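Hi V.,

You were right to ask for the full record rather than a summary. Here it is.
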Amino acid sequence: MRYKWLLFSLAVRRRLALLLVLTIHGTTVLAQDQPANTLFEHPADQPFYVGGQINLIYQAHGDFRAPYSGPQSLQATSEHALSRVLTLYSGFRLGKSWSALFDLESAGGKGLSDALGLAGFTNLDVVRNPSLGSSPYVARLMIHGIVPLSRDERASDPGPLSFETSVPVRRLDVRAGRMSLVDFFDVNAVGSDSHLQFTNWTIDNNGGYDYAADTRGYTYGVVVEFDTAAWTLRGGLALMPTVANGIDLDWNVGRARGENFEVEWRSARGFIVRGLGFINHANMGSYREAIQAFENGEDSTPTITAHRQQGRIKYGSGVNAEQAFPKHVRAFARAGWNEGDTESFAYTEVNNTASAGIDVGGNGWGRDHDKAGVAFVTNGLSEPHREYLRLGGLGFLLGDGMLTYGRETIIESYYTARLWRGLSASGGLQYLVHPGYNRDRGPVTVVAARVHIDL
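Predicted structure:
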């Protein structure tokens, strides 16, 4: 036993040293039989997993029309920003079908206008509170278990969230610990990955899904899935932040929690559809109460934080579909809605949304690992939410000082080129109409460049 532990320790140290060499020097000598999508091999028969990723996104926009701006507006003069996210993935098999995962992460740099002024912000990697700094933090700390309910198995792609190469067709998947809910809910093969695909918040995720998370997008919770060959039923219970967009989580689940439900159906022809529902309980405010207090002269400006109530409920639903076509073409569509009087609290300021897009593999032009995509999203606000902003109220993302309402509409395109194994480079463009739902401001064109390394 001591000998096996020594071998394991030496292997982990060797892998970490290789990751460090790559990060510092950018190149190293690699075996020629490695898979095309990672720089390092990850043999499925190892009792442990060590990997990582580096994602760098540069974005810029020029001057745009803005007769007025508020304390939380997208900056109307030209600006640029560079974000970086580095993640160390690790895990260890605890026994047959059980494993432990531990991911350490650092998010640095910043986003345009410190990620303010847009509901569909342009860069999913940006931490919405730049004062948090880039010190490493625990991103995921999970136990994952599979309970087989059939003897038949199907192939499974191993990765940072699951090490299994095959899984029972009928099974229970159980996960508990620190996690990101959108690793498991509202996932879409075409529009969920800011590393290689789109980067806009409301294209990569359902903008109406105010999923439980802290500022960095993580929470503590439990997710249980019941899987069959054709469909999956999943549910999750997770901690809510103590304040909107806050870094601290409320551990009293009797008064604050996020309840999540999703059913997924898969056809043999590549069509997948998911129906999503969520109910959040937290210390949230009411837009109507904030407006009423302002109109009664109780508040000098509408202030949602002054009208919070513990145990208030916000609920919503969504649908998510994708379809694979011949010639390496895939399409997706999403729609979402949430109750519009209770404060937007955890993800972004959207009360209803619809999006659609496609991606095309580069096989047709001799670049098998390249991909190009284009997507469209339109986001909207409820009547009390838009009136709150019109009267000068501030959300945790928005606040132009006033508002001439119009739906926030965004078109995003990208091209990702696989340069060598796990090294990719991308170019992208976003066109934003009515940024922050304001017809008086914009339109805005944002250009982007991205470098991504999968270790």
